[in-house]
Amino acid sequence: MSGETISREVLLGWFVGLFDGEGSIGFVLRDRRYQLPRITLAIESEAGAMRCKKFLVEFNLPYWQGKQKPRKNMKATMYDFHFFGYRTIKKLLDVITPYLIIKQEQAEIVKGFVEYRISLGNENDIRTLSEEEKARLIGVRTLAIQRLDELNKKGIRVRKWPDGTLTRRAQPSTTTEVDSPSSVGEMV
After folding, report:
1. If 0-12 CB within 10 Å is exposed, 13-18 middle and 19+ buried, where does residue 57 land?
2. Domain coordinates in residue numbering, the chain
């Protein structure tokens, strides 16, 4: 990897593919009172972590990185990348959302919520909002969390075909061939 030159487009494609498979988009509880959006990517490869850093620096995306040494139930060191804060999340999602396949709908939900929250102003202090704004914000956040929960249910796979249609199924494929849209099952 040293001395390797990678174009921005290739780097973006690589990161989006990695994130689609290994990333996480959701909300986390803060101070046992507020649920805030958070995006996480965890990988085992040190070379992959270095390339992630290269992507994040190239696209000027803020992040926090952690490293977990193997424990009893882990087989390798994990490199974690965390994105939190409304403006940081918006910046990341502005770059990757158009290219996501598996997590595109989740990204659009969180991006919509983040943009709404930023539009209210002073996103770091909910106390500056009117009671009406707080109530609406809580409603929008609750809907976003519910929709993410529906999309993130275990056992549901989402596929996007070249024609842009999405299909979902609750059971893994029993065929050994690549699934065609007609074999995937009903839309849910």
Report:
1. exposed
2. 8-152, 155-188
pTM of the model: 0.76
The helix (H) or strand (E) run that includes residue 91 is helix 86-96
pLDDT band, residue 75 (cuts 50/70/90) = confident
Secondary-structure class of domain 8-152 per CATH: alpha beta
Give the type of residue at 91: K
64-68: average pLDDT: 90
Q: How many CB atoms lie within 10 A of CB 141?
A: 18
d(CA 134, CA 21) in angstroms, rounded, equals 34
Cα radius of gyration rounded to whole Å, the chain: 18
Question: Does residue 108 contact residue 97 with C-beta atoms inside 8 Å?
Answer: yes
